[in-house]
Amino acid sequence: MTDDLNAVAEKTGMELDFDPNKLRDKYRDERDRRVRQDGNQQYQDISGKFAHFIDDPYVEPGFTREPLFDEVEVLVIGGGFGGLLAGARLREAGVKSLRIIEKGGDFGGTWYWNRYPGAQCDVEAYVYLPLLEEMNYIPKERYSHAPEIMAHTQAIGRKYDLYDDALFQTEVTGMEWDEADEKWIITTTHGDRMKARFVAMSNGPLNRPKLPAVAGIEDFKGHTFHTSRWDYDYTGGNNEGNLTGLKDKRVAIIGTGATAIQCISFLGESSKELLVFQRTPSSVDVRKNAPTDPEWVKKLRPGWHQKRVENFNVMMSGGQSSSASKPKPQKKEEPENEVDDGWTDIFRSMSETESKRPELVLSGKEKGLLNELSDQKKMQEIRDRAAAIVDDPDTAEALKAYYRQACKRPTFHDEYLQTYNLPNVTLVDTLGQGVDRITEKGILFNGKEYEVDCIIFATGFEVGTNYTNKSGYDIVGRNKVTLSDKWADGLKTFHGFFSNGFPNCFFIGMTQTGLTANMTHMLNEQAQHVAHIIDQAKQDNVSVLEATEEAETEWVDEIMRLAKLGESFYAACTPGYYNNEGQPGGGGNGFLSGQYGRGPVEFFKILKQWREDGKMQGLKTS
Q1: Which of 94, 270, 400, 570 is 20 to 30 A from 37 via CA?
Q2: Which comes out higher in pLDDT, residue 586 or 119?
Q3: Dihedral in degrees, nearest 10, Cα atoms 26, 28, 31, 32
Q4: What distance, in Å, lies between the first and last C-alpha atoms of the chain?
């Protein structure tokens, strides 16, 4: 059996209007010209002279308060959905002594910081917004805008009394285990030195903006800001647009990822001139947002939300309850696709040919090639959409994404591509290289200086750097061992929650877990798991619990074994944060390098079975 895609297409009867082998070569060529030797070093830390890029524009400067030297039972770091869900589930488990520490001025996490025009969830709100039944709330639209999501986080904080002891505008500066007292000592930017029996860290993957390490970035004399700190004092307007402050401004935006896709149409309609600097185009499929249908709401029955969330996850996993499932000879019963959106369409298209022809006998390699073909077909539809919408053929071609769908986060928008038909909007395609430098007057690329009044950085967040760097503090565990030292060569956890040598400390987020496109589902599963463990510890009168070395080693070995299954896929991807900027090895710091390889459905089953077993398997307790 060869890698001939045409042979598999012929065997399965898949009709194509392109040569899949030539398209594969095109993908490889586009990837190769984007690979950079500097990897994540192409971005610079936001500190020193760049520190103003992470200032909080939503609070009055100069906030102070008296330091605290008290003690709580559970301390949660991070007030985004991860921290809120942990707080909610802990309250449900009866935890009264609970504090959340949050850098921002309120709850919200990524939705506190990202208030740029057009900011909106790209996963259906009926599955993305958590605790909908508990909150008795139905989103106003299929894809909620940032203000509604932010309001939902605040409502969760009120319902579960999470505001009572919360510390906002506060950053953790250190954590150290007190062996004698069997508690964590936490220090902060306000001089706090508090203690906690348990600490749950939900620092979030999208909490620290990054800037490109472009020569001359400090020389620009005009105005600059990062999309996660949108400057409405300069642009005017709000999340809905109407950026009147830009009517006489020449604006440049660097980046065409998920954030830029949402805000560029507003910049285009408001700016005197808009220049969009692109390194790699995003795949942009239809979104089809719409107000919530009241008749649909009337038909909902108790338990609908969790059922819909789980259905989305199953469909995202290829319509199987477990990615480890073995194929059956008889025709497989396909689950109903309740969400039926762009995300689930991606994965449905990858398996539809096989499901339509159950009599086909395909080898494992042929199935892999069939998936590649289905992926190519879906991506060709997305490229054809760009060609159909964008008037200028050269611009349309530059906006076509030549890589496999799962190589970068897919996007969905109904106005983005149309923006390039406006006479004041120009796409500057940097051919995968990025801009050359920034000057006093603007941006230099390929020998041409583009003079602008304002540069907006839509360059994303630190996801390729190590855990402690993203968190902003290190953790000192038993025997003065730091987490940065222990994880220097990669994450080492048990089920993603615990690390040996760091007792009573939980990691919530993307640490060797079951990653899914619907992040809040993963965070909710983790929050329930943490609440269960702390509740059981209280019932069993356990004061200290910690992963055993054996359990940690077994989990890390499983993570690494399964990771090999995806190595070749991500190695062939265009560079980005999914594959550590084209360097998949990357010391285990890549966005996807530490995820459970069998997928979230199987991972959540593992956690559920572990809880039902009731033996705290893999933990040593005292």
Answers
A1: 400
A2: 119
A3: -110
A4: 56
Mean pLDDT computed over every residue of the chain: 90
Spatial distance between the Cα atoms of 512 and 562, rounded to a whole number of angstroms: 11
Please tell me the predicted confidence (pLDDT) of residue 53. Answer: 83
* Pairing outcome for strands 183-188 and 193-201: antiparallel
Dihedral angle sign, alpha carbons of residues 86, 89, 91, 93: negative
Residue that is written with structure tokens 């080693």 in the block: 553
Please report the pLDDT score of residue 566 as a whole number: 76
Q: What is the largest CA-CA distance in the chain?
A: 72
Pick from 159-168, 298-307, 469-478, 492-501: least confident: 469-478
- Cβ distance 82 to 508 under 8 Å? yes
pLDDT in tens, 257-269: 999 999 999 999 9
Rounded Cα distance, 116 and 263, in Å: 7
Neighbours of 602 (CB within 10 A): 19
Residues 6+ apart with CB under 8 A from 576: 280, 407, 408, 582
Cβ atoms of residues 142 and 120 within 8 Å: no
In angstroms, the CA 292 to CA 334 distance is 27
Work out the number of other CB atoms within 10 angstroms of the CB of residue 61.
7
Identify which of 321, 302, 318 has the alpha carbon closest to the alpha carbon of residue 310: 321
Task: Work out the number of other CB atoms within 10 angstroms of the CB of residue 388.
Answer: 9
Compute the distance between CA of residue 238 and CA of residue 149 in angstroms, rounded to an integer. Answer: 15
Q: What is the pLDDT of residue 592?
A: 59
Please name the CATH architecture into which domain 211-282+408-457 falls: 3-Layer(bba) Sandwich (3.50)
Q: Where are the domains of the chain?
A: 8-36+288-376, 71-208+463-546+601-617, 211-282+408-457
User: Which whole-number Å values give the CA distances from 334 to 170, 318, 320, in the listed order?
Assistant: 49, 10, 8
- Look up the CATH architecture of domain 71-208+463-546+601-617: 3-Layer(bba) Sandwich (3.50)
Does pTM top 0.85 for this prediction?
yes
Condensed to tens digits (0 to 9), the pLDDT of residues 357-416 reads 667 788 888 888 888 898 999 999 999 999 999 999 999 999 999 999 889 999 999 999
pLDDT, one tens digit per residue, over 314-340 is 988 865 543 333 334 444 556 788 999
pLDDT in tens, 471-516: 889 999 999 999 999 999 889 999 999 999 999 999 999 899 998 9
Q: Cβ neighbours of residue 362 under 8 Å, at least 6 residues apart?
A: 8, 11, 12, 354, 370
What b/e readout covers 453-482, taking b as 16+ CB neighbours within 10 angstroms? bbbbbbbbbbbbebbbebbebbbbbeeebb
In which residue are the tokens 């074994």 written? 561
Predicted pLDDT at 207: 64
Alpha carbon distance 262, 256 (integer Å)? 9
